[in-house]
Amino acid sequence: MGDSKKRRRKEASGEELPFKKQLKADSAIMETLKQLSASSSSVGETLTVQELKLPFQCREVADLSLSSVQSNIESLILKIAHSILSGQGFSFEVPSRSAANQLYVPQLDRIVLKDKSSQRPFANISTVRKSAITARILQLIHQLCIKGIHVTKRDLFYTDVKLFQDQIQSDAVLDDVSCMLGCTRSSLNVVAAEKGVVVGRLIFSDNGDMIDCTKMGMGGKAIPPNIDRVGDMQSDALFILLVEKDAAYMRLAEDRFYNRFPCIIVTAKGQPDVSTRLFLRKMKTELKLPVLALVDSDPYGLKILSVYGCGSKNMSYDSANLTTPDIKWLGVRPSDLDKYKIPEQCRLPMTEQDIKTGKDLLEEDFVKKNPGWVEELTLMVKTKQKAEIQALSTFGFQYLSEVYLPLKLQQKDWL
Amino acid sequence: MGDSKKRRRKEASGEELPFKKQLKADSAIMETLKQLSASSSSVGETLTVQELKLPFQCREVADLSLSSVQSNIESLILKIAHSILSGQGFSFEVPSRSAANQLYVPQLDRIVLKDKSSQRPFANISTVRKSAITARILQLIHQLCIKGIHVTKRDLFYTDVKLFQDQIQSDAVLDDVSCMLGCTRSSLNVVAAEKGVVVGRLIFSDNGDMIDCTKMGMGGKAIPPNIDRVGDMQSDALFILLVEKDAAYMRLAEDRFYNRFPCIIVTAKGQPDVSTRLFLRKMKTELKLPVLALVDSDPYGLKILSVYGCGSKNMSYDSANLTTPDIKWLGVRPSDLDKYKIPEQCRLPMTEQDIKTGKDLLEEDFVKKNPGWVEELTLMVKTKQKAEIQALSTFGFQYLSEVYLPLKLQQKDWL
């Protein structure tokens, strides 16, 4: 390879890369980043639901220790036994997770669950199955607490296929049980499949092993599925770069972008999974670093950003633990397409479905509260054009790491 | 968590786990594994196409250095320039990758490409576009060689969307170019997205960083996309456990199965990707360890096993580098369903498509050469039942790591 480097010619295209001339020295860009980082760490603690004094009650869950989860289950079952012995039969009180019971709270910048709940009596033909499933899930979680092991939702389903019939049913009751016990799903020791990877200026412990993410080559470190065994985070990074796609992540990892501008690079390779969301939140909370997001310029890019930022509706009861507040939209933004002169053939026409999704997003509170985002999304829907992060490769494979991102950082061009 | 362990009661189910009584001491099982490992490392080098003296010519590619790839491209283009200057126009000679040109060679135990090739002249309306694309891909690969960087197929597509129109077109020509230059796709520095993870008794270097896979917690190490930067493999493992699914991988990683029976655990989380296939082959070749596969008991489980073992038809020109010979089918096998008394409700009926895929597999040479596999697959098609690895959770979440796998190893129950 040294050989091929010697043969490197003066690259004709090097000087002509659009906007490359606008780039200042890295040291100047670093100053910008230090300001960003300082402003991010000086921000006080995020508000809690209690401090807000909302006009309604909110249901939120917390991380509980295994032994607390175990006691909570035991108390619940004792109460039920008393109820049966006193001739009342039994019923579970289950918090409602329906859309009508969800609310976006601007002060918190996330979706929360209100306190409506419903009864799930055993002695009722319409709820007997669900209450049996609930009891079984409680029993299985109790076993997990005793053994101190983690399993996936799929494992849980397979312990009693005859009763659950379909994984959708055991999954839904699992979320119910989280709500009922007032704890996060990770506290139940039920974990999602791991998908995310992390690389860059971060050291942390995974199940007792110390991991140095600057020494993880190009592949990076797989993000562990069980956040409760992650700890001791240390970093000299100035920001976290959240990347939607694998390909962009690889470019940045190979170019060791984190050594040019100290940062931590993380991706869930598409849709954010629970493990990556928990990991991102933990980094943000413990290291107090600003988070900059690099996503495709399409409605799904923004949607992914919103799941990291405000949570998914399905798990709104756990939004306090799963969301990372104040994520900045760095790129690729609809206005970048013209600004960076992305050629027409690298832009794709939006489908009807894309446009509908875009318009729906414009109605969402978490988009509306950020005028910059509204403006960008309106532009996208108007031009009916989308583009992937990879579209930047049209100016050369390393345009992303060598020009686009440094210039974005230099110009503080995030929303 | 220590707390919860203290509260652990004598587990009633522990003694009743099916087949647990048949388990011998771990030391006895280790003896079995040492024999397996010894027999695997004493096997001589695999045959090459040259040694076989086949009745036809075979086209195979090799790992070439970046500078060799660069010279090969330059010679090819020089030849074309001469052809144009002498008034002949130009044409690429492109090896055929069609099914008719592929063959399964039992002695090699993999699919190879025969030497048929076709002309792709520029001055012909039916091939002008493809020859233009070929020239452009050659130029882009040449750039990658000069810069010494890796990109994805998607990046490659985006450098000239106008010409390629569709990623399928640039991907197909990329494979053509591999064949034409006689080198592997990884030698072209075009990598696939990374998907696989590895954990256990393995130390290797990734892009210069030393990675100890016993110290990767539960998450494991992401398998690097660029195999040419992987090296220095060391291991005291007795075998490699190739796992189809994420959930089973997690169970084994959390239980640190590799410390009970020294092994390396690897998964591509479903369909095998090129990076994981290359990584598995490298482990097998350098460490001379036997490979045992744990896949779902369905036609796709066997198909996945066959892709690792014999290659995919699409990349048959590269089968020598991508395949890992002599993978043993450990489980979950169709005969295990009855043998391990998997309850009826944890078995799933096969769909029409499943049955068709199963029957098609029975016609494939790489299945036919292993009578044990034929027997198992015939049983599957006959009973019309399939099951996931997770079905074992029906006996408890840790049944896989505590009973099923140890017993399989003890009984040398692989095919």
UniProtKB/TrEMBL annotation, chains A, B:
Protein name, as recorded: DNA topoisomerase 6 subunit A
Matching SUPFAM superfamilies: DNA topoisomerase IV, alpha subunit (SSF56726)
Stored Gene3D superfamilies: 3.40.1360.10, Winged helix-like DNA-binding domain superfamily/Winged helix DNA-binding domain (1.10.10.10)
Active site location: 158
Chief place where the protein resides: nucleus
Swiss-Prot/TrEMBL GO biological process terms: DNA topological change; meiotic DNA double-strand break formation; meiotic DNA double-strand break processing; reciprocal meiotic recombination
Taxonomic path: Eukaryota, Viridiplantae, Streptophyta, Embryophyta, Tracheophyta
Cofactor(s) essential for the protein: Mg(2+)
